[in-house]
Design goal:
With 761 residues, the chain is an alpha+beta fold. Helices cover 28% and strands 26% of the residues. The longest helix has 28 residues. It folds into three domains: 189 residues, Aldehyde oxidase/xanthine dehydrogenase, a/b hammerhead (Aldehyde Oxidoreductase, domain 3, Alpha-Beta Complex), CATH 3.90.1170; 326 residues, 2-Layer Sandwich (Aldehyde Oxidoreductase, domain 4), CATH 3.30.365; 148 residues, Aldehyde Oxidoreductase, domain 4, CATH 3.30.365. The strands form seven sheets. The chain has a seven-stranded mixed sheet with strand order 3-5-1-12-9-10-11, sandwiched between helices. It has a six-stranded mixed sheet with strand order 7-15-14-13-8-29. A four-stranded mixed sheet has the order 18-26-27-28, with helices on both faces.
């Protein structure tokens, strides 16, 4: 079953129109919450007047920070102690720091009344100066802290000595614009507190359900066993959904306060100004290189615009940027300095390929600049700096998500060779040359990257065969639309030989399995997939032992064939796994010397990640009349280690590529000089549609299976995104005839400016 492109198990209810999204939950007595948000980017709250809202018929309550006794939201991932003062309160108490910050909540019997009540809340705010760029001098966060949230420097080797050794110094400043994931379904949550049982049920997207359960129970002063998270379908995750936001805690608080189910459903404008933003980095890179383009030292200083607060991700993005920036290149001397700065914008977090999209753009722009200044072919420069396969595993003295950076396997040059041959890029380049000679603005660009996947430290799976032979797989992993259920079922089917349509995968409900890490960091195929393999193997061993005892034969004389156990070479003795399960009822199991039930729970542990890698190539043309770049074709080569379901891997890559395209050419959150957001609808925020997404050709390879897990797999969730911006920039340079692009997104205005210049700089 592993390696086959089977249809997704998840799709049946969705295709039947029976999906259960956040807004589909309608519990008896359910009421509706609206959030009153700041209309000022930075200011002191003088008063919050809730009286008129409370008097509106149908309103059940209205509360401000003075009424809501909830603590700040804690960090979930990589954190530094100096970041603690910058955690976000669920409601602003004395100061607001971005447009959209929650100031108060109202709850009413229906959503329309709640929206009317929201408009009746009067909030008086005295404006304070705003900070809108990470490159500005730090401003005031509060009486004790400025907006410099974090500074750190990591290094190995001797960068200063290499820079002073008389080599060529190549410099680049690269900027990655502020954008984020825009799911089809906005955020939403339903909380239902039962006073009689003391149980709080929470319904909504949860990529990290067990963490959110523990965090909510701590914030609410409840036992974790009394908070139950139920995951529904998700209309897009992309790293920004399912984290713990202020609204999640507020619906729970309101439900406890009222003793009724409370629903909060975000509208699109709210999403643009309150869900996590991302990217928004500026890099200043210097490299010491030999005349052949070999990088002897790399020095990078970068600034991250974190927005107004540090949310659950803490230092995840800057540390991933710093640790993964060297990418596939050897680089014996490396130093990176990071400056995380708060600004009066919506807080930032993770978004598909966090830190790597930014770092890859900066690094690959540097590689192209080196080639440009030295008069070399950019792919020759890449090849001369690639880590060789015989150097694997390749270790760097850096940390990524709390794990040591050690590339587990890879042959980067081989992937390039296979892609170039498979796609016929030599012929494409010749066609580009002819078109340019005819006067067209067209170019071919390339970029290479290393990703990370398979973050631990654990994931658990329980596999149970019932008496009908149906298999239930329960895991603490969660689904955000990535085809997780199908992947897990295929791994189980590989071991037990049962078709996946006879399997049910349950996940992410905290009442189903006690522990789980969730869906992020492209980890589930590695972690939950490996745990499923181990659990299915344990079930198989138990089935063999029980069958052997039932038939008084040695276990070595029992085999599994097409989902049935039998005596070796004796088809007439074959029985379904369901028959074995029936034999393992409590009383009969005791007679067989077995524990009751044909079930097993196993855990896979890992203290490291693995490192897939890929190659992006873009063919771009520019219309000189409207200055709009058009991506005519795009190619992605990706070594997955082992593809459990190649169709799903390709789907992940195509979706990721579309999001990489948005950041490269279209999407950017912009603000005016007062910190007012200028992109609060799809009129202002230019998200690519299907018409803008180019044909994408994908080559999946399995040349470097991971030695770090029993399946040999690596993650696939981010490989379509990582180098998209870098490849587009390279192709635009080729179309323009000169190294030019150091900032994304690139829109028609920038292209017009470049084409109007009489002389190239």
């Amino acid at each position: 079953m592993i390696g086959r492109s089977l249809p997704r198990l998840e799709d049946r209810p969705l295709l039947m129109g029976r999906g259960r999204f956040a807004a589909d939950h309608a519990l008896p007595g359910q009421v509706h919450l609206r959030v009153v948000r700041s209309s000022v980017a930075h200011g002191v709250i003088r008063s919050v007047d809730l009286q008129q809202a409370r008097e509106l018929p149908g309103v059940l309550g209205a509360w401000s920070a003075a009424d809501v006794d909830l603590p700040v939201i804690e960090f979930r991932q990589v954190a530094f102690p100096e970041m603690l003062p910058y955690r976000q309160p669920v409601l602003a108490l004395d100061r607001v720091r971005y447009v959209g910050e929650p100031v108060a909540i109202v709850v009413a019997t229906d959503r329309y009344i709640a929206e009317d009540a929201e408009e009746l809340v009067r909030v008086e705010i005295d404006d304070l100066p705003v900070v809108l760029s990470a490159l500005e001098e730090p401003g005031e966060f509060d009486d004790l802290n400025d907006t410099a949230a974090l500074d750190f420097t990591w290094a190995y080797g001797d960068v200063e000595a290499a820079m002073a050794a008389g080599l060529r110094i190549v410099e680049v400043e690269a900027r990655i614009g502020r954008h984020s994931g825009i799911p089809l379904e906005c955020r939403g949550a339903v909380a239902s507190f039962d006073p009689a049982r003391g149980i709080l049920d929470f319904y909504g997207a949860a990529k990290v359900p067990h963490y959110n359960r523990d965090a909510l129970s701590a914030m609410l002063g409840m036992a974790p066993s009394h908070v139950v998270l139920h995951e529904g379908h998700v209309g897009g995750g992309f790293g920004i959904r399912g984290e713990l936001y202020p609204e999640d805690a507020l619906v729970c608080w309101a439900s406890r306060r009222l003793g009724r189910p409370v629903s909060w459903i975000e509208d699109r404008r709210e999403h643009f100004i309150s869900a996590n933003h991302s990217r928004d980095q500026v890099h200043r890179l210097r490299a010491a290189v030999t005349p052949e383009g070999v990088i002897v030292a790399l020095d990078d200083e970068f600034w991250l615009d974190q927005g107004a607060y540090v949310r659950t991700h803490a230092a995840t993005v800057p540390t991933l940027t710093a640790s993964m920036l060297p990418g596939p290149y050897r680089i014996p001397n490396y130093r990176v300095s990071c400056h995380v700065r708060l600004t009066n914008k919506t807080p930032a977090g993770t978004y598909r390929s966090p830190g790597r999209y930014e770092g890859t753009f900066a690094r690959e722009r540097l590689i192209d600049r080196i080639a440009d200044e030295l008069g070399l072919n950019s792919m020759d420069v890449r090849r001369r700096n690639f880590i060789a396969p015989e150097e694997m595993p390749f270790s760097r003295p850096l940390q990524a998500l709390g794990t040591h950076v050690e590339y587990d396997s890879g042959d980067y040059a081989l992937l390039v060779d296979r892609c170039e041959a498979e796609w016929g890029l030599a012929e494409v380049e010749e066609d580009v040359r002819r078109r340019r000679e005819a006067g067209e603005l067209v170019g071919l660009g390339r970029a290479f990257f290393v990703e990370k996947s398979g973050l631990g430290p654990f994931e658990g799976v329980r596999v149970t065969v019932d008496e009908s032979g149906h298999i239930t797989i329960s895991t603490g992993g969660s689904s955000v639309g990535q085809g997780f259920e199908t992947v897990i079922a295929q791994v189980c089917a590989e071991v037990l030989g049962v078709p996946i349509d006879r399997m049910t995968v349950t996940h992410a409900g905290t009442g189903d399995i006690e522990y789980g890490m969730g869906a992020f960091a492209s980890r589930l195929s590695v972690m939950a997939g490996s745990a499923t393999l181990l659990a299915a193997q344990s079930v198989l061993r138990k089935a063999v032992a029980a069958f052997a005892a039932m038939n008084e034969v040695a276990e070595r004389d029992v085999e599994l064939v097409e989902g049935k156990v039998r005596v070796v070479g004796s088809p007439d003795t074959a029985v379904e796994l369901g028959a074995v399960a029936r034999a393992l009822r409590p009383v009969s199991a005791r007679g067989l010397g077995q524990e009751p039930g044909l079930t097993a729970e196993e855990w896979f542990y890992s203290d490291h990640m693995n490192y897939p890698y890929g190659y992006h190539v873009a063919l771009i043309s520019i219309d000189p009349e409207v200055f709009q770049p058009t991506i005519e074709r795009f190619w992605v080569g990706y070594d997955i280690g082992r593809a459990i379901n190649p169709m799903l891997v390709e789907g992940q890559i195509r979706g990721g590529a579309a999001q990489g395209l948005g950041g490269a050419l279209y999407e950017e959150f912009r603000y005016d000089e007062n910190g007012q957001p200028l992109c609060t609808s799809f009129i202002d925020y230019m998200m690519p549609t299907a018409a803008e997404v180019p044909p994408i050709e994908i080559l999946l390879t399995e040349d470097a299976p991971s030695p770090l897990n029993p399946l040999g797999v690596k993650g696939a969730g981010e490989g379509g995104t990582t180098a998209f911006g870098a490849a587009v920039a390279s192709a635009l340079d080729a179309a323009l005839g000169r190294y030019r692009v150091t900032s994304i997104p690139v829109g028609p205005a920038a292209v017009r400016e470049w084409l109007s210049e009489k002389e190239w700089p």
